[in-house]
Amino acid sequence: AGAMAATGILRAEWVFVAAALGNFCSDQFWYWLGRLGGRSGFLHRFRWFQRRTHELSQFESGIQEHGVKMYLMAKLSMGLLTIPTLMSAGLARVAWWRMAGVSVLIEPIWTGFLVFAGYRLGEHASRMGRGLEVAALIGGVALLLFFLYWYRRIFQRVNEAHKANLSTTNE
After folding, report:
1. Residue 27 has pLDDT above 80, yes or no
2. Res 39 pLDDT > 80
3. Does position 24 have pLDDT exceeding 80, yes or no?
4. Per-residue model confidence as pLDDT tens digits over 111-122
5. Helix, coil or strand: residue 77
6. In this predicted model, which residue has the larger pLDDT, 116 or 159?
7. Could you give the C-alpha distances from 154 to 147, 150, 158, 167, in angstroms and in order?
8. What's the CA dihedral at 129, 131, 132, 133 to 10 degrees?
9. Nearest one of 116, 108, 131, 136 to 1, comparing CA atoms
10. 103 with 29: CB under 8 angstroms?
């Protein structure tokens, strides 16, 4: 979307607003999914969770203490592990306002960086034009050939395993 703003198709300020709201809403979705799946929710209906109540209580106390810091670090590290951190915070019932506060503070910075990077990339991509189209075509064909080779090898192994299984059952 940032690249489209650079070409004039979209307005950069509206791209920023839409991206920031979308990121905030998705973060809230993952938090509330974890919160609704908490102790009395759907996750604890599974035996694996029922057998590990001691470990889960230790986990919840650790998340209660360090959840906001973990979320802040996940956001600052290019969003890696944001979803598991948010779901864990919801499961551990970390106060919503604490998680939302971090999101409100960090999201504009992160989203602004992404929109700016997309905008700058869009400026360069529009200059590169034809060369970029050729590179994308060559890359797409190479990727297609790789996947065809990979699928062929997988199906060949499956077929060999099936034949071996048939031969052992016939004996």
Report:
1. yes
2. no
3. yes
4. 888 778 877 777
5. coil
6. 116
7. 10, 6, 6, 20
8. 90
9. 116
10. no
Query: Residue 10: left if φ>0, alpha if ψ -120 to 50, beta else—which one?
Result: beta
With contact defined as beta carbons under 8 Å apart, do 75 and 82 qualify?
A: yes
User: What's the distance, CA 115 to chain centroid?
Assistant: 18
Q: Which residues, other chains included, contact 4 with Cβ-Cβ below 8 Å and sequence gap of 6+? A: 10, 15, 122
Length, in residues, of the chain = 171
Q: 101-105, 136-140, 149-153: which range is least confident on average?
A: 149-153
User: CA 15, CA 113: separation in Å to the nearest integer?
Assistant: 12
Cβ within 8 Å of residue 19, ≥6 positions away: 1, 111, 114, 115
* Predicted TM-score (pTM) of this structure: 0.59
